[in-house]
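Methods — Computational structure assignment.
A single polypeptide chain was analysed. Its primary sequence is given first, followed by the predicted tertiary structure written as structure tokens.
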Amino acid sequence: MSEAIIEKYGDARLPRYTSYPTAPNFSSDFDPADYHDWLKALPDGRATSLYLHIPFCRSMCWYCGCHTTITERDRPILDYLEVLHREVELLAAVRGDSFHVGEIHFGGGTPTIIKPEEFVQLMEALRDRLGFAAGVNTAVEIDPRTLTGEMADALGASGVTRASLGVQSFDPKVQKAINRIQSVETTMTAVERLRANGIQAINFDLIYGLPYQTVQSCIETVEAAIQLRPDRLAVFGYAHIPTFKKHQRLIDEATLPDVRERALQAEAIAATLISAGYERIGLDHFALPADDLTLAQREGRLHRNFQGYTTDACEALIGLGASSIGKLPQGYVQNEVPPGVYASRVAGGELPTSKGYRLTAEDRLRAEIIERVMCDFSVDVAALAAAHGFEAAALLTNNERLDALQRDDLITVEDGAIKVSDEHRFIVRAVASAFDAYLNKTGRTFSKAA
């Protein structure tokens, strides 16, 4: 891989394109009444996704980019859960139990920070007040360091089908530098407890580009991880944005790898996983050949949402909890970010929407192009434009970003179809950005492309 290409594109600050338009484009002028109308307009009997945000951890991992609060006490968590239950009631008041929930994702923070009985009660409230489809896929993000046997029992009893475990790195030096000490044995115990409770679908999150990380330490982490044989792994590049996440200032920038080293780490991780029998999914996921994610990629039905690559094809995603983002056919909505403000809005009997965005016809076209590029590394722009009633020339002609990618032999454009070079998959976000009409208009700093 050319070092010039790595230097040119690997250091680009670009969105991860888990939505389009991206969250910085959401407006505080959004009318919350529109969200109510959008919920009412959801077709009966069509599966809906839920995302529940639990914004609490016991300690801060210094690399973290999530909205979370550190607490050693249970009272703030219990107060938050009470508000969350009330938000469920507010949603139920809009549509009763007719949400036909088919997918649930608990994120954080650390969702398993709540007590086992509290998790069971929350799942029962979702089932009783919003209504479940015949088969529900439920995923929970887990910190293996705090997962108890009792919580694993509760997850299994509640019908959880997938667990996503934060691993990041098994290198002790890296762990100390990011304030997250987690042994292989601790992770193994968590996996065993989950599998003993019927939760066979396991995902590991890994990160490269962390302080003191090397190609060799990345390979050793992967080799340790695959001994536990997770079904999937998500491999992310560390985004160092201390301006927005002040705790990241505790990381010594001098210990962070440069752009070239980051690229080498990413490719070393990919090569190790592929040699172990995993297939590369999209930009940064890996899965075993029989996994649903792998099958979805082969069949052209892979999707991308706020949780990354997914098989979730639901048209509506409803966010619950502080800072959560939802997507409905008409557009996006985001809840109040500060937990206190979120709680006040809910206590007042309001759905706690703070921002939103109503999609235009052009947004829908660009969103589909970006999703297909991110999922398939190719897209027939001409065909999609025609399907949406647009001229492809308006997207392809005089497109400076596309032209630059072509000059560098990173993509081919033929008869209105774009294909990304297999050797340069890491630049796919740069390709997606060529169709982002809002890029660089918000002043927001995004993560590096590699």
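Note: The CA atoms of residues 32 and 353 lie 6 Å apart.
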